[in-house]
Amino acid sequence: MEASTLTQYLLYQLYHARVILHSLQDEGKGEQIHDFRIALRHIRSLVKLFTKDTVPFPEPLKGVMKVTNPIRELDVLLDSLSPSHSPKLFKQLTKLRQESLKTLFTPQFIAQTFLLLEEYATLLHQSDPHFIPEIMIQRVLTQYQHCLDTYHTLQPGTKSKALHRLRIDYKDARYGFEFLEISNLHPCRELILLCKQRQNQLGAVQDAANQVKWLKKLSREFPSSEVKEILRKRKKALQRLKDTTQQVLSPST
Fold it and tell me: 89 and 81 in contact (C-beta within 8 Å)?
């Protein structure tokens, strides 16, 4: 019996994650880590939407996603800097990233994570969850409606944690729509774009806050006028983003 559309999609994402994982040990480029995390995020989102009660996303794989957060944050910060304008800081961050990469992506970590992915692929293949298309479409639409309802109840002064949770909810809806689109179950291009827009809007503050966090850490460990000046500018940029977000969330807009 042929595996369900959902199972095939999840198995492909797991296969894709395993392929990228092999390359991480040798290179560990920013786009590879990002793609690896996206593959896991696709799986986690679809499991949350469809199979969380029957084939839940493994806690150890959640741990893998969590421990790769700092490297991803460093990559985002490095991408925002110019090596010519901030040579010392760029060099320090590059060195810190290389050390973090070497510490995390050890042969043991790679092997353990690869095994986790294989075990989960086996479990999904054996379980092979089936849903009629109408149920899958409705679940994704329900998730999207939840995002809309939550977004429209946000108020100025909403804490960043709440915005981050809503950002994740929009990711779940987006990856659900992408699955429906690529599986030819439901046309979702416009909804995917809307989810991306809200995702970026909600994520801008979180990304900026992460950058300030890393710059503060460097300012303490490697104090310099260059780091101090960039930190000052990033703090101002973060405040502007917060102010903009407050305006968007104000009842009058």
Answer: yes
Question: Which long-range contacts (C-beta less than 8 Å, at least 24 apart) are formed by 83-90?
Answer: 86/226, 86/230, 88/224, 88/226, 88/227, 89/218, 89/224, 89/226, 89/227, 89/230
Angle at 116 between CA 112 and CA 117, to 5 degrees: 120
State phi, psi for 55 to the nearest 5 degrees: -135, 70
Measured CA distances, 229 to 84, 135, 182, 217, 224 (Å): 15, 53, 46, 14, 9
pTM of the model: 0.90
Q: Which residues contact 15 (CB under 8 A, 6 or more apart)?
A: 121
pLDDT in tens, 64-112: 999 999 999 999 999 999 888 888 899 989 999 989 888 998 899 999 9
Structural domains of the chain, ranges and CATH numbers in brackets: 1-130 (1.40.20.10), 132-247 (no CATH)
The pLDDT value given to residue 67: 95
Tokens at residue 138, please?
């409705």
